[in-house]
Amino acid sequence: MGADNSILLNRVFTRNTLREIVESNYSDAYASAIRRYISDPSGKDNKQLISEIYCVLKKEYRNEYFYKNTILNKLLLGIHKPTTTTALSEVSIGKSKADFVLINGRAVVYEIKTELDNLDRLESQIANYFKAFTRVSVLASEDHVDALLKLLGDSPVGICVLTKKGTIQEKKKPQEYLNQLNKDIMFKILRKHEYESLIVKHFGTLPETSQFEYYRACKQLFCQIDTGAAYLDFVATLKRRRQIDVESYKQIPYELKFLVYFSEFKTNDYRRLNSFLQQKEVSPCTSLI
């Protein structure tokens, strides 16, 4: 696929484009994608048009969004439930960012390696993830399987494959690995109200110090907590981060599940998006076709 095509597909499935659609009922990227990828859009509603554009993504350009949307649909919504399980994305851990974290009774970090990626930074990424989480797995294309088995075969890291058919196969289960947990790294992932809640839980009160010293004082207290207890509280705290309107979310089409899940939709946002998806002639999108 040419560079222009890949750039356009990358733009369509982003939170910025989704927000434009919800707020303005229009997006330049979406209108351009219709012109480029849909041969006959007449009579089709936006839900069908988005599905057809997503099919291009699936067949010709399985980018990071395709992987993230697949793992969310297959694991969070397929095996687990959004009422009992939480997903996080782009979590900064040390010098790396975790692509996807799934938390139910335990937490698993998923590092994504698409057909478009190489494995050059994988070992350093995994090392960073184990500083904050005890289970790590790599979700990769079939092209990477042999290299991953050779690289990670004797490690606690799991290996999952996104097949050509769009299914996820687990080649190697992730094993719990606690040796590298770092409370300093965990603390940096927590938000202010989150670490304050944990400090009150363990020490009964918050530190009385200057505003300048407050963050450091809180971190020092957190680091005094037993590592095992701190980790359990850390995971439980992250699990509470994302609350969605489950009934409204059920109406969101497969292709947009990941985007909507991480867009902090309110009731009115769901209403506007559903209205857009049902429209067959969307001004000014259709005028540009």
From TrEMBL:
InterPro entries the record matches: Sce7726-like
Top-level taxon: Bacteria
Protein name: Sce7726 family protein
Organism of provenance: Cohnella thailandensis
Classification of source organism: Bacteria, Bacillati, Bacillota, Bacilli, Bacillales
